[in-house]
Structure formats: structure tokens, C-alpha cells
Amino acid sequence: MGEKKALSTQDVADMLHVSKSTIYDLIKKGEIVSYKVGRKVRFTENDVQDYISRSKKGPFSPSSPSGTLGAFSLLGIEKKQDGFIICGQDLILDILSNYMRLHDIHALRAYIGSYDSLVSLYKNKINVASTHLWDSDTDQYNVPYVRRLLPGIPTVIIHLTCRMQGLYVAKGNPKGITTWADFGRDDITMINREFGAGSRVLLDENLKLLGIYGSTIRGYKKENQSHLAVASAVSSGEADVAVGNEKIARQVDNIDFIPLKKERYDLVVKKENFQTPEIQTMLNIIRSPAFKNEFANIGGYDTSDMGKIVAEI
Q1: Contacts for 15 with CB less than 8 Å, ≥ 6 apart
Q2: Is the separation of the CB atoms in 281 and 102 below 8 Å?
Q3: What is the pTM of this model?
Q4: Can you list the domains of the chain with their CATH numbers?
Q5: Mind giving me the DSSP string for 145-194?
Q6: Please, are residues 113 and 133 in contact by the beta-carbon 8 Å criterion?
Q7: Which of 62, 101, 226, 259 is 20 to 30 A from 107 in CA distance terms?
Q8: How would you class 272 by CB atoms within 10 Å of its CB: exposed for 0-12, middle for 13-18, buried for 19 or more?
């Protein structure tokens, strides 16, 4: 991240996958730096990165704003804290957590990528993992990774939504970027997602199929932890291309979206916990018309099979 772009409260909320009220709470508590232009609250990209860095070093606290656990990894935590923890980075999970709190379930959020989410479920640090990991050997989402990362653990995979993944490019696509093969060009600079993010796995799997090493791509080692941040980097000209989902492309000026892959975004729970009141309440919520209607006007979400059992492993 850099200092080049002033971010609004909504921009920062999208980057951290939380509500605007959570951002205002962070400002009030002095946990994130901001400034004002007239009556408008603004942030630099470094302010957001500094907050993320401090959160990674800080304690794992159920008292975080709006029931969040902060935008940091769970891998250093020895055991799961009190509360029902849903892990993943999409806005849909924040709304799900809010619905569960309305049903008197203390639902907490942990904001880490798909790979680390599954590892955290395996280590019993969370209750629900979310994942959108594509396996090139089977052309299948999530099931192969659940088998590998939760060995010997009976699990249930529940479908949440489908989203379109693709490429963020500058408005008008001046460099004519259209396929994964374009990452092998000498005139392309990219910006990457962090290790374990579904978008990064999708990129790496396609590069493997093409025989392209990431280390040969300019910008491959430059990472960021949100779709919005990498889309903003393309918008500002810091990079020519990044991988992300279509919904974020609609929120950022001066970029186009090249659709490449319809992905499945699923929830994973341990089978031994499937009949608990918390999991059954969660299932009833995501199958309800009221919850599905939350996304009717947002765009970028296919909720037709929401709540369907994908597999029992």
C-alpha cells in the first residue's frame, strides 16, 4: 500500500470486510488513524496497512468491534476462544454473523484467506471455515482441498454463493490483457494476493498449467490482503493487472473486469458439530428468503443454491 489514494470510510470497510459502523468505532477507540477533509473522514492506504499490521501482532480478542476478531491470522493461536467463530473475508459472512447475533448466537468473525481458514478449522480454532479454492487436477472447487487439509476429519461442505473471478485491468484495457497466458508477457506488472487467498490459488494453478513460474512475473511478490486494495492498485496505475472478483470491480473507478472463472464459495463445518444449535441456526438463516434478499440488489452473488449440501466427506 502507499499514500497515493485517499480512502473513504466505505473504501476501508470494504478492504477489511466489515461494516462502516465498525470503522467509526475503530476511529473512536483510536485503533485506526484517519483525517478530515471538511466534514469527510479520509484515510491513507498506509493508515489501513498499519492497522492490519498492528492487528496481526495483537491479542485474539472476542471483544473486538462489532464481534470481529480483526484482520489477522489465526495461525499463532493455541486454542479457540469463547464464541462461535466464522472465518473468511467476504461481506456475506459479516451479514450472516449479524443475523446469527439476532438469534442470540455470539457470532464472531476472523478475516483470513481460504487455505488458512481450513487449517484453522482442522486445528479447532474456529467453527466455520469459508473457502473458494480451485483444484486444476479435477477442475473442482473446495472438495479436494477439504480432503487434503482436514485429513481424517468428517466434514460437511455447504454451498453459500457463486461469484465470478477474473482480472482487474486499466479502463479500456490498454495492454490487451485477456487470458492467464498474458501473465507471461515481459510488459506486464501485476499485484498479488496473500498466500492462501482463493484468488492467488486460482492464479497459481493456472500458471502451473501454462508452465509459467510466478517468480518470473514482475510484481508477483508484491502482496495485498483484499480485492479492493489490488483493484485500487490497478486503478492508480501501480499495476497492470490483478486477480479478483467481479463485485469489487464495480466499486473501483478506472478499471475493467475480464471474467475468467465462475467460482464456488462454500462453508465447511465438522460433521460432529453439524447438529448443534449454532450450525443449524446458521443453516436455517442462509436458506431463508430474508437472507437471500439481502443480496438481491448488491450484484455479484448467485444465491440460487445457497444452503445446499455440496458434500459430506
Answers
A1: 7, 48, 226, 228, 229
A2: no
A3: 0.73
A4: 80-313 (3.40.190.290)
A5: HHHHHSTT--EEEEEEEEEEEEEEEETT-TT---SGGGGG-TT-BB-EEP
A6: no
A7: 226
A8: exposed
pLDDT of residue 82: 59
Which triple of cell numbers denotes residue 143? Answer: 472438495
Cβ neighbours around 256 below 10 Å, total: 16
Euclidean distance between CA atoms 94 and 114, whole angstroms: 16
Helix (H, G, I), strand (E, B) or coil at 245: strand
Q: pLDDT tens digits for 293-310?
A: 888 777 778 888 999 999
Which of 62-76, 195-209, 226-240, 296-310 is the least confident region?
Answer: 62-76
What is the distance between the alpha carbons of residues 25 and 126, in angstroms, rounded to a whole number? 25
Query: Which residues on neighbouring strands pair with residue 192, listed in sequence order?
Result: 223
Nearest to 129 by CA among 279, 281, 18, 295: 279
Cell of 115: 487455505
Could you read off the pLDDT of 7-53 as tens digits, one per residue? 888 888 877 767 676 787 778 767 788 887 777 888 888 778 777 76
User: Helices (DSSP H) in the chain: which residue ranges?
Assistant: 9-16, 20-28, 45-57, 91-102, 114-122, 143-149, 198-210, 227-235, 246-249, 277-286, 289-293
